[in-house]
Every structure is written in structure tokens, then in C-alpha cells.
Fold:
Amino acid sequence: MATQEKITVYNLADLKNTTDDAIPNYLTSLSFTPSHILTDVRLALGFSAFALSAACFAWDYNFGFESTKTYTAFAVALYTILNGLLTFWIFYVEKGTIYQGTSPKGDKIRISTETKKNVPVYHMTIEVKDGKTGERKTLKISRSFTEWFDAAGRFVAAPLQTVLAQGVDVVGRVDTKRANAAKVEGGEAGPSAVYTPEMLAMLSGEGVSVVGSAAETARGTEAAEAKKGGKRRKN
Amino acid sequence: MLSALGNPRQAAAQLMNFGLILSTAFMMWKGLSVISDSPSPIVVVLSGSMEPAFQRGDLLLLWNRNLFTETSVGEVVVYNVRDKDIPIVHRVISKFGTGPTAKLLTKGDNNDSDDTKLYAPGQNYLVREDIIGCVAPD
Structure:
């Protein structure tokens, strides 16, 4: 497997974006069905605003300013409205959501994330709706980025997946392997007891950018021993 | 960043962000243009013909609406010579008649003679239509 990309660990935006991209990959690998409504509305609003401005440019370029003044005035007003709607959509409806979908067992899940400026802690707000009982719950999980990034800036998927599988029962039901792994005693304060920085480096040095527990089974022995907390030298 | 363009939605979202930056800048310019009713609401002074009032390189905000009064003698206006695209910033020094057919003569403050030489051959005066805006008073 190719060597993994490294990100700058001091760049909070990089940390958040990499993690935000990893979670949908993980859930999709567990056969969750994503719902693209939020993204689609956002794309529709944005592209229609862009198309409007392209049309305005076209008629201004071809016919000049004077003859197309009225159309341009309407175009500017409509563009302002579309952009306003887009901003409203992003801030009030999407609200930092990075994933929305249904699990293979029929539970609905919606994950939004945020970070506070210059604090390397990842706050997740997870809303779940049980498929059978219809019961809604909101969970908040906050973890330090050090739990799934090694010192060099490589992302290791396994600890993040374990956090989600053990923290959210909707995910744990589907990903039983991770849910039953050694309990990750992490938190905002520091890294988990199970995944020390050396092990993170080793796991990432392995080229572990796979997602999902199915692939993990293939390299099961190494991962299992790492989770037990043993210091295992690779040679 | 741009590396993992695995799914088309993500690619589309990034393309959209880029496109919106361009189109917002363009729409802000057009909005200003519509509000001031001028095809080019911000112009750069190109020559020293209005010194010491305006220096080369100064930016001017134009207003092309005559809401309260007509363009009068003494106002600084910007016009394009017929069929040319170069904006000229000079002052109106005389006016014959009133309304949109009034004849206007302009001259740069720092020039020796009026603009008759600058107008198109056969043109001896400007009308209000030729002017693309008056310099907004500061």
C-alpha cells in the first residue's frame, strides 16, 4: 500500500477536515446508506446562483450595459436572494453535519462536528433514531485529535472507528468487532490507554489506511496484539 | 484537500465554492454598476490633466443618476469619446440648453485648451448620454 499522506498536526482545519472525511468513509464501509439531501440542496442553490451570474456575464458581454440594465438589476437581486438562502442553509440547516444516513439495521444517524479555535479537540454531536422503537437520542462525544493522528500527522482509522463503535450503539450494532475491542478510555485530556503514540506510529507505518473491520480481519493478528497493549516490535 | 475527490458530490462542492467566489465578485461589481447606473462605476485617473485635483492613479467612484439636479457647469465628469473605450476625466466648463439634449463642453483643469480636439472628428460638444458618470463629491 502506498505511504499515507501526512498532514500538519498544528493545522486545526486539516485535522478536522481529514477526520470529517474519514467518518463517512467508515460508515459507508459498514454498509450504511447515506442520505444526500443536505448536500444536494446546497449544490442546487450554489450552482443556480453561479449559472445566473454566468448568464448575466454573457448578456452583458454580448449586448453591453445600457440595453441589459434591467435584466442585470433583476439578476443581482435574485443572486443576492439565492446566496442568502445558501448561507442560511449552510448555517442553520446543515449546522456542521458531516454525515446523515441509515444503518443496515434501519436506524437513522446524523453526525455534526465542530472544533473550537486553537483547541485540538473534536466535538461530535450524534443524533440517532432507533429503527424499531423510533426513540431519538442525542449524544455528544469529544475526543482529542491525538487519539487518531500520530506525531508525524498520519491518520490512523482504527481508534476513531473504535470511538464511534463504542460510543454510539447504532454503529456498534453493525460494527461488532470494534464495539467489542478493548475499551478506549479516552477523553479530552489525553490519548487513550490502549493506543499509545508508539503504537499509532506503528499502525500507520504499516500503511493502515483501510477502513472498516472487514479489512482489519485480514491483518487481524497484528491489530489484535496491538490492542492488547503489548509492545510488539516489527522486524 | 483536492486529493480525495473520490465521490462526485465532493468534487462538485469544491467546484461550486470556486465558482461562487468568482461570481460573487462579479455580481458585486454589477450591483454597484446598476445602483450608480454607470457601465463602469469605478475608474482610474489615467493622465495628469486634472492636477492638482486628481492625480494619475487615483480611483474615482462615479454616479450617473441625475436625481435632484442636472449635470451642471463645474462638475467633474467622466466620458468616453465616441467609439473609444478610454474614460476621460474632465470638468464641464460650459453648457448650452437644458435636458438630455443640452450641449456640454469639457476641459481638463491642467490643460491649456478645451476638449474639442479630443472629441471625434466632426463632434464639437458632448451630450448627457456620452457621460458615464459624475465624480461623486467627497
User: Anything to note?
Assistant: The mean pLDDT of chain A is 81.
